[in-house]
Amino acid sequence: MNKTILEMKGICKSFSGIRVLHEVDFTLLKGEVHAIVGQNGAGKSTLMKILNGVFTKDSGVIWIDGREVSYDTPIGARRNGINMIFQEFSLVPTLTVYQNVFLTKEPRMGKMLLKDSYCEKKTAEILSEIGIDVEINPKSLVGELSVGSQQLVEIAKALSSESKILIMDEPTASLTHTEIDSLFDVIKRLKQKGISIIYISHYLRDIFEICDRITVLRDGRRIFTKKLEDTNLEEVISAMVGKPVTQQSHVGKGVINREATPILEVDNLKVGNLIEGISFKLWPGEILGIAGLLGSGRSEIVNAIFGTIKREKGELKVKGERINIRSSRDSIRAGINIVPEDRRKQGLILDFSVKENLILPIVNRLAKLLLVDDKKAEKLVSYYMDKLKIKAEGVWQVVRFLSGGNQQKVVVAKSMASESKILLMDDPTFGIDVQSKQEIMSIVAEFARSGGGVIFISSELDELAKYCHRILVLKRGVITEVVDCEGGRAISEEALLKMIQ
Ligand SMILES: Nc1ncnc2c1ncn2[C@@H]1O[C@H](COP(=O)(O)OP(=O)(O)OP(=O)(O)O)[C@@H](O)[C@H]1O
Ligand SMILES: [Mg+2]
Questions:
Q1: N or C, which terminus of the chain has less Cβ within 10 Å?
Q2: Distance between CA atoms of 115 and 120, rounded to whole angstroms?
Q3: Which of 353, 388, 415 is the last residue of a domain?
């Protein structure tokens, strides 16, 4: 049995009088990969931010290597060998890779600042030590890297200090399949070196693949800690949800009348050398999936339709009528809305409340003279909060203080609330727990059944297979196949995975 490297005991935390962690205990062994799971808002990130010194605990004790420790800053945590990769990236886009890696480091060489050349060399070393096949130049600006590469820089940054404990909060969310495989190799390598890893994820299958033990949190309480070999998927899910898992009700796909006028027609869309010759039709009631690796051009398609990136070529028709979309304002006017991939940048105003975020795009519809009809607004907001089970203290809670998954639910609700007819959804269930995923998908299905059209991008191929009527397979910016999944025809996740490679 490996020795215990970390012990957290009786950890409590409240935010403005509301308890979010109740006497949580957590132990970590040397060289173990320990998963923490729980529904959105269960308290996973909060517990880890306490360990990392971002939040101060209200009560409880932390021991590292058998010694009680006390710190209330990330620097203090780092001195104790703890590093965290955040759910929300903490990189500065306008600095280079190596500047980011060494950004928060204490200068090691006496009082002298670390030299650029040293940092650059060291960064290259760490990146090659991580052993990921992706080329990253330490001198590149972080803002110019793909989201996947940025994630790797985050890991490099965490490893640049002497780490005993590495916390990963949803590390795979923005990685491609190959990047995920290499990340798992990296994790195995770190483990062999005796580094302990705390791994937070909603991808339970990955957890069964790479973790040694699992701790389930529910509503801020620890439900159990077990070895993965002593538990199974059903037991974990029912502990997360708090009741036995019932056979999940499957939302049937609606029938589509392909004689009708398409709700959206895209003809010969081209954006630089990112996407080319993209043509398809979307019918009322249809959920059209796009399967493709990150970087295949899938986000570019929806962004070019929505007007957030410039089309070089391509015509759009909405309900048979040609429209000219030059900006997102034009597309909203034409009844098109988007759930963007980068929700924190494009989807939300973090310092506004849930309510303000939801009603912002629809103020006109609710406006009576110039005043927003508050009752109506509140009703609408409550409807979506209830429908998507958004965990917040109320409609007035500031979005910044919601858990990651609940922020994402607000983005989805926002796109739904605006009475659009066409929804472009770029990985909408990213960071969302198993049960909420179902809730989101069932209201997407309901939206389609009531005559809307949905373009649905997802990295989770089983989700595409389950909910879409057709799936466009995208490779290097071109559509290589159209898979028909209507009327009893189905495709397996494995088959789709092969197609997108
Ligand atoms: N700074 C804060 N101020 C107020 N409330 C907060 C703050 N940070 C988190 N909370 C609340 O604490 C609860 C737990 O949030 P936490 O972020 O730990 O959840 P999580 O388990 O990481 O969820 P997710 O899977 O969605 O990331 C949530 O109800 C959240 O709204
Ligand atoms: Mg979280």
A1: N
A2: 9
A3: 415
Distances (CA, A) of 9 to 2, 68, 173: 19, 11, 30
* Residue 256 covered by a domain: yes
Separation of alpha carbons 208 and 35, rounded Å: 9
Scan for tokens 């092969």, then name that residue. 498
Decide if 274 contacts 477 (C-beta within 8 A). Answer: yes
Question: Residue-wise over 93-116: b if at least 16 C-beta within 10 A, else e?
Answer: eeebbbbbbbeeeeeeeeeeeeee
The dihedral built from the CA positions of residue 385, 389, 390 and 395, taken in this order, carries a sign that is positive
Ligand nearest to the CA of 56: 1
Question: Do both 363 and 473 map to the same domain?
Answer: no
Taking alpha carbons only, the member of 81, 50, 85, 49 closest to residue 65 is 81
What is the band of 110 on the pLDDT scale with cuts at 50, 70, 90?
very low
User: Between 420 and 200, whose confidence is greater?
Assistant: 200
| Domain co-membership, 119 together with 169 | yes
CB 437 within 8 A of CB 408: no
In a domain, 307, yes or no: yes
Summarize pLDDT for 183-231 with one digit per residue, the tens.
888 888 888 888 999 999 988 889 999 999 999 999 999 999 999 999 9
Query: Is there a domain that residue 456 lies in?
Result: yes
What separation in Å is there between the alpha carbon of 216 and the centre of ligand 2? 13
Shared-domain flag, residues 83 and 214: yes
Residue of 80, 73, 125, 86 whose CA lies nearest to 102: 125
State how far the Cα of 290 lies from the Cα of 293, in Å rounded to an integer: 10
Q: What is the pLDDT of residues 269-326, one digit of tens each?
A: 999 889 999 999 999 999 999 998 877 899 999 999 999 999 999 999 999 999 999 8
Query: How many Å lie between the centroid of ligand 2 and the Cα of residue 148?
Result: 19
- 3-state secondary structure (DSSP) of residue 141: strand
Please count the structural domains in the chain: 3
Mutational test site, ligand 1, from 11, 12, 15, max ligand atoms within 8 Å of CB: 15
Beta pairing partners, 484: 470
Query: Strands (DSSP E) along 149-259, which ranges?
Result: 165-169, 196-200, 213-218, 221-227
